[in-house]
């Protein structure tokens, strides 16, 4: 954790400069940390808390075979992780972290509300007749509401999780200060500690509520927590330092890949270190004959 936190800190410090910020006089600082950390922690409790028992909900309420239910949950989990890449790209290149986290918070809230409604409104789930051993199969409309709720939760997770930690670091690096590194160390420690505690609460308290108090309360509590998460983040808006979006690292990487592919059949000149860019006082490094087309982006 220490090494990952240190590497994250270096990336965040390198990617944040005072010229990238909007007018940030009097903005940011430690006072913004409760809003950001509470937003992330409550999102974790809400989204992680509904996962362990979801297979039981699909089997017992939606009469879904265990194989189909497992596939659906795995797809749902994969979507949440894959969408984090797009969330990070959009925040870095177009919308900025504050707006992406705000969109993600309300997307997760809507998804959890729809999921809660499937437990509250009988018409949104398959009917179970008293004389039947099981429930009827779900209709297309009922499945659509279920899939919509899962999709919105995945979009929310993909927006919040990649941006939250970086947005918090933005608040502590708006001014050059000798205490920046110490504050970032403390921030990362508290951030990862709170995430760990949130996961424990999600996998114990929320699961206990679902098993003992039923699905209505078991899904209602995560929805309320997500509402508090969104409200907490929005309440801190006047205090945030908001970084203007710039060029994403993913965009730069893709540009290098495209140029390398386009130049893969070009004839290379004789090996001569004068053709290649070298930083001052650095040792020259002449490429080998293998995959030399990857060096062309450095020559442009």
Automatic annotation (TrEMBL):
Transmembrane segments: 45-67, 73-91, 98-121, 141-169, 190-209, 221-241
GO terms of molecular function: transmembrane transporter activity
Cellular location(s): Membrane
Region feature (Disordered): 1-28
UniProt entry keywords in alphabetical sequence: Membrane, Transmembrane, Transmembrane helix
Matches recorded under InterPro entries: MFS_trans_sf (IPR036259), POT_fam (IPR000109)
Keyword Transmembrane helix assigned: yes
Record field: compositional bias (Polar residues): 1-18
Gene Ontology cellular component terms for the protein in this record: membrane
Keyword Repeat: no
Membrane topology per record: Multi-pass membrane protein
Family: Belongs to the major facilitator superfamily. Proton-dependent oligopeptide transporter (POT/PTR) (TC 2.A.17) family.
Protein's name according to its UniProt entry: Uncharacterized protein
